[in-house]
Amino acid sequence: MDRILRLTVSLLGGLSLALLTVENAAAAPLQAGDAASDLWLWSFLGRLHPLVIHFPISLIVVALILEILRWRKGNTEYLAAIHVLIITGALSSLFAVVFGLLLPTVKRMAAL
C-alpha cells in the first residue's frame, strides 16, 4: 500500500508541475527579437518537447503496471525496477518541462 501511495504522489506531483508549466508558458511567451528567442539551440530544444514529453509518461505507466503486478502477486521482485522507473521518470519529466518552457520560442512547429 505504501508503494501505491508513493506512485500516486509522484503522478500528482508530475501533473501539478505540468499544469504550472503550461500556466507559466502561457503567461509570458517570448517574442521574436528577444535575445533568448534568437538562439538556435533554444528553438531546437523547444521543438523536441513533443517527442520528449512521452518518455516520462510511459515510464510512470510501466511503473504503475509493475506495482499492480507486485501487489497482486504479493512479492517484492519488481521493487527495484519500480524505484528505477519512478526516479528516471521524475528526472526525465524535468527535461520535458524545460523543453516545454522553451517551446514558445519556436516560431513555426511545421518545421518538425
Would you give an account of this structure?
By secondary structure, the protein is mostly helical. 78% of the residues lie in helices and 0% in strands. The protein contains five helices and no strands. The protein has helices at residues 2-27, 35-38, 40-52, 54-73, 79-102. Helix 1 packs parallel to helix 5. It is rod-shaped.
Q: Please work out how many helical segments DSSP would assign.
A: 5
Question: Would you report the number of β strands?
Answer: 0
Helix content: over 70%
The coarse silhouette is rod-shaped
- Which stretches are poorly predicted, pLDDT < 50 over at least 5 residues? none
Calculate the terminal CA-CA distance, rounded to whole Å.
43 Å
Mean pLDDT: 74
Order of helices and strands: HHHHH
Strand content: under 5%
Structure classification? mainly alpha
Multimeric organization: single chain
* Gyration radius, in Å: 17 Å
- Biggest sheet overview: none
Outline the fold blueprint:
Blueprint: H1 2-27, H2 35-38, H3 40-52, H4 54-73, H5 79-102
Task: Provide key terms for this protein.
single chain; 112 residues; mainly alpha; 0% strand
What is the compact description of this entry?
With 112 residues, this protein is mostly helical. The protein is built from 5 helices and no strands. The chain starts with a helix and ends in a 10-residue tail after the last helix.
